[in-house]
Amino acid sequence: MTVNIKYKLFCVIAAVMFIHGTVLLSQELPKGAIQVFPESIQWVNAPTSLPPGAMISVLEGNPQQEGIFTMRVKFPPFYLLPAHTHPKDERVTVLEGAVFVGFGNAIDTANAQKFTVGSYYLNPVNEAHFVFTGEEGVIFQVTGLGPWGLVYIDETK
């Protein structure tokens, strides 16, 4: 094969790939499809039910209403979320950093499990647990059924 033919073949393949890629990128999404890209995520301060410093981004649904929701949560380094429960199961996937989770009615940092990038855990409905970060902070994704909330445990009991 001569250089000229190889060049022409390369150009044809490149053109086909470009056209195919353009068609894929310009397709309309079917009803109900959700696509979120990292650069489009907008972080806001978490509601006052979380201690100051936390940020969230809701990707799907509304955590305050009935139905499924997915949100990203960002805790800074050395963040502490006291013992609490949730009214429904909470499914968590760690995306960046690390988070420590322990079960019980009072914070006990010596008895907490460290979850790093790629880890998944489920906090069962009405099971008291506490959460904290170390020096690196964390970003995790929560999926659950709304309405979502926190009920703090009175650690003085």
Percentage of residues assigned to helices: 10-25%
Strand content: 35-45%
Largest sheet: 10 strands, antiparallel
Overall form: globular
What are the low-pLDDT stretches, counting only 5+ consecutive residues below 50? 16-23
- CATH fold annotation: Jelly Rolls
How do you describe this structure in short?
The protein is an alpha+beta fold and 157 residues long.
Description:
- This protein has 157 residues and is of the alpha+beta class.
- The protein has one domain (38-152): Jelly Rolls.
- It is built from 1 helix and 10 strands, in the order αββββββββββ.
- Strands 1, 2, 3, 4, 5, 6, 7, 8, 9 and 10 form a 10-stranded antiparallel beta sheet that branches.
- 14% of the residues are buried.
- Residues 16-23 have low confidence and may be disordered.
Element layout with pairings:
Layout: H1 3-26, E1 44-45, E2 55-60, E3 67-75, E4 80-85, E5 90-103, E6 113-116, E7 120-123, E8 129-132, E9 138-146, E10 151-152
Antiparallel strand pairs: 1-2, 2-3, 3-9, 4-8, 4-10, 5-6, 5-7, 5-8, 5-9
Which features does this protein show?
single chain, 157 residues, alpha+beta, Jelly Rolls, 10 strands, globular
